């Protein structure tokens, strides 16, 4: 929504002169980072953290199973796993208001679906292309949606979800519903032009949106430093006066705390935030990626020393949670995931007539 | 319980591979993430990782084995605390491996199934205009503006966005007065960033609003075409009908006047080839108004193609409270019995002028305005063909892969028995549009080219 001309000229933020000094300008872009650095980790009690741990573990086990089913030929096409990045979706999602805030992401979307509490059966059934899948088998791994949960997909064109997310944020503001949009994209998408077109309009119109760069260090096979002139993505909003946040995406409590800070700022009507979550994907870009662009040692180091689930586990043990309880939880999740795989394998294929449904909504 | 390790599919197309090397041996303890083996596909050598913890029980396929089918059990992993010798393959293992190495599940059971598209429903007719209705003269430009204004009054969710639509009152003055009536919340000037604002408009539709996104011309929509096709057109299908996208993209399309090749192109055939889109290209003011109102109300994404050269032309429009016309229905602009001229947008005017002149020579041409290009009103074309037995298509656009080509295919496939002459296309020349006045005139269709084609199919 454009401001009225008078409102626009009255806004000191947009007055062309006098220019803010470089130092002032920088500090206004750092306000959220400064706030965040006061205390970077969310104070979670044992129950809260246990819940976050359970959700991350569900994503991990689900994705491992999806990888297995792909290997068995039950899942076809492209399949992008979220293993390693679990803390990002869970940390942010846990701070969002269900039913009010909207989410949009790219094709690495299974983890985000699970983060919403969507039934693993219908997600896995979509992966295997069955009628019971959330898109009746017509979307597949990359195209899943749940309007009921305000999860808007599931988009296969790198960067497109960012402008679409701008539109969702626009709708929140237009409807004055108090919601915000979380638009996730990768370090690869962060180089797409439309991302910056959207940042410009989002800042110009004070749209309620959090741009989240899930920097997993590789755009398919190209390392960040080989593709990006500015590798600190959280700084890239500076051209549009969007405050940035630099977040450890391997720590669910840090992501959660960053989300608290960012969401408060956006809900107060201050416009967008650009949050960079530094994370790592353990598997290839998709299932067919041999991942020869990085060393095994590099992957192993992240797994052994920075794993988000192990980190949450260590925190839980410190909080006095029994290890046996965590083992039982893992067992239950494995059983749940196995059940979803059975469901997905045994569900019927879509009816041939499904081919022609949902092309258009109306009849003309 | 023992876990079967099966030959994995490592790409969407892999059916078999070479088990190049085992990196573990029987009795080794492995944990999640350890590399068990290297597998060569036709494209790459991939590492096969363990997902579970356990002890390597038995290696069933030795290293160096070629053409190992996907799904074959290659080793057995014993779980923690389980004896290696206990870890025998379950009886169902081989059967299952065979099943999954072949066709996709279920595919072989059903065999080829003939599926036909659902039958088309009977067409809706234009609503009758009550006798005594006042007729007013409106330019196409005003008719379009009135359509938007009426729909904005009717539905709070409708808003207009685009370059220069608000304070400038529209680059071609189509949105004149809207800012004054509806204010800056609903009439929004965007920066010159078509890709970005087409995405924002599409996303806003997904979020429940009814955006009307104006492109200053459709030439600039090339920057944004990904959102029109990949985001707007496919979402309903990919989501199994969950996620709608009721957005209208509108603006002038086709050749203007001496603006050169980059600003002169008819995109109707481009968008009309995409399932999931509705494509409308009206000619006169009445259709422009009635169809734009219908487009804004539609639950589907609509590409609404206007024509700059027609904006100022005036036509009679019925003064009705709510003038809405059916999408997907052609209109007979002039009845005739000797030949059918199928057309849309600016070429309808050319066809009508040609028909008038032909009547003077004793040839009665029926002129059909398609109005909606997708879904195409096949019935209207075929009915007219059955009556006249001759079809000429007049289209202001390139001939190759055009709407005209589509009409030719339709007449061949479904109207062949009625044809007395080859279906003939009259389109622009197959060149980028030149700037020089004489060359531009040569490149575009005109009345004389249509008349020549009609005479040819009438063997006159």
TrEMBL record, chain A:
Residues 1-26 are annotated as: Disordered. It catalyses: N(6)-[(R)-lipoyl]-L-lysyl-[protein] + pyruvate + H(+) = N(6)-[(R)-S(8)-acetyldihydrolipoyl]-L-lysyl-[protein] + CO2. It comes from the Bacteria. The keyword Oxidoreductase applies. Its EC number is 1.2.4.1. Its cofactor is thiamine diphosphate. Heterodimer of an alpha and a beta chain. NCBIfam families: PDH_E1_alph_y. This is Pyruvate dehydrogenase E1 component subunit alpha. The lineage of its organism: Bacteria, Pseudomonadati, Pseudomonadota, Alphaproteobacteria, Sphingomonadales. The gene is pdhA.
From TrEMBL, chain B:
It comes from the Bacteria. One of its GO terms (molecular function) is pyruvate dehydrogenase (acetyl-transferring) activity. PROSITE patterns: BIOTINYL_LIPOYL (PS50968), LIPOYL (PS00189). One of its GO terms (biological process) is pyruvate decarboxylation to acetyl-CoA. Keywords: Lipoyl, Oxidoreductase, Pyruvate, Thiamine pyrophosphate. Its cofactor is thiamine diphosphate; (R)-lipoate. This is Pyruvate dehydrogenase E1 component subunit beta.
